[in-house]
Amino acid sequence: MGRLSQMSTAMADPSTSGQVEHELISTSLEVEQLDTNLFRSKSLWLPVRARGVFGGQVISQAVVSATSCVDVSYGLHSLHCYFLLSASPSLPILYYVDRLREGRSYTTRFVRAVQKGKVIFIMMCSFHRPEPEHPSNQWQLPSNCPKPDELEIDIDFYRRWQNSDGVDERMKGILEGIIQERCKSPILCTVQVERKGPDGTLTIMHYMKARGIPKYKPAFQKCILGYMSDMAFITVAARSVGLKRYSEGPKALSMSSSLDHSIFFYSDAFDCSDWVLYVIQSPRAGSGRGVVQGQMYTQDGTLVAVTTQEGVIRSGTRSSLAHPEKSLEIAKL
Question: How far apart are CA 206 and CA 229, in angstroms?
Fold first, then answer.
C-alpha cells in the first residue's frame, strides 16, 4: 500500500459532544489502492444545495493518491487542477496517477479522476526535496486581522440567525440544512469577517481547523490543507460584486462552481488541528466568472500556502443561457 492510502483513525472531537458526530478528515480523504498507480475513493460528500461532490475533497484525495506514488524524501510544493465535470456521490471516483518525471530536486505527477468512464478532474503536482539553506521572504499577517477567540463559530452564527425574528420558514429550513452539515463537517470554521482597504479592496478572513486529529506528518497535513483551501473560497468573488446567496433578483447568486484551483506550499511546519487563518481577495470578476487569491497562515504568522481559484459566479440576471433554443449547447455548466 502507498504511504498515505490508509490513514489512522482519529479520536472524536470532545467539543461536539451532544451534537451529531462529525466525520473524521481521515475518512474524507481516504482512498483505496487498487494497483501501483490506481486509487479509488471510499467516501464522497455532496454539500447542501450543491451540484456535485465537494471540490476540496476531490483535490485532497488526488493529492493522497499522488503522494503515495512519490519517494518520502520529496514534499509536495505545488498543484494545479481543473474541474471538468461535476462528480456524483453515488459512485466511487478512480484516481489514475501518471509518473511524469523523476528528477534529483523535483518530481512530477499527473492525476486523472474518472467517474462513469469520463475524466471529471485533472491535476498536475510537483514535489521538491527541501533546500532550507536558501533565503526566504513572505507577506506578513494583515495588521487588522482578528484573533480566533474573537470570532463566533459559524454553527453558532447560523443557529442565532435561524432563531432571530423575521426569518421565514423557507429560510429556517435552509439554515437547518447548513447547521446539520456544518455539525458533521470534519473542519471547524469561524464566521468570515470583512475588511476594506483605503482603495475599497475587499478582504475576507476566517479561521479553520481539522477536528479531532492526531499529529499527522507534513505529507498528510498538506492533504488536509488542500481540503480546507476550497472552503468558502470562490464565493468571495461573488461577494466582491455584491451577489448574495439565498436572495432573489439581479443581486442573487444563482450559481457558483469551481473551474480551476492552485496551491503553492511553502512550509511543512504547520498542524491543521490548530487554527489556520485564510485571507482571501478577489482581484477581478466579470462575464459570469471570478478569480480569488488566498494566503493561509498559522497563528504565529507563518505563511504556509498561497492559493488561487477561478470559478463561475452567475447572478440572477437572465441571459441567453437561460433559453437553450437561443444559445449554443453548454457542455458542463
Answer: 12
Cα–chain-centroid distance for residue 133? 31
**Selected catalytic residue, list 154, 230, 240, 315:** 230
Burial 151-188 (b: 16+ CB within 10 A, else e): bebbbebbbeebeeeeeeeeeeebbeebbebbeebbbb
Determine whether 230 is an active site residue: yes
Half-sphere exposure of residue 113: CA atoms within 13 angstroms, side-chain side: 30
Interacting residues of 233 by C-beta distance below 8 A, sequence separation 6+: 258, 280, 292, 294, 307, 309
The span from the CA of 78 to the CA of 226, in Å, is: 11
Residue 258 annotated to the active site: yes
The band of 21, judged by pLDDT with boundaries at 50, 70 and 90, is low
Catalytic annotation, pick one of 60, 68, 258, 315: 258
What's 178's DSSP letter? H
pLDDT over 70 at 2, yes or no: no
Q: CA 119 to CA 82: how far, in whole Å?
A: 11
* Residues in contact with 162: Cβ distance below 8 Å, sequence separation at least 6, in sequence order: 171, 172, 175, 176, 179
- Give bridge partners of residue 262 from the DSSP assignment: 80, 308
| Cell triple for 106 | 523535483
Of the pLDDT bands very low, low, confident and very high (cuts 50, 70, 90), residue 17 is very low
Q: Are 331 and 307 in contact (CB under 8 A)?
A: no
With DSSP H G I counted as helix, E B as strand and the rest as coil, what are the percentages for the chain, rounded to 5?
20, 35, 45
Q: What φ, ψ does residue 54 adopt, rounded to 5°?
A: -55, 125
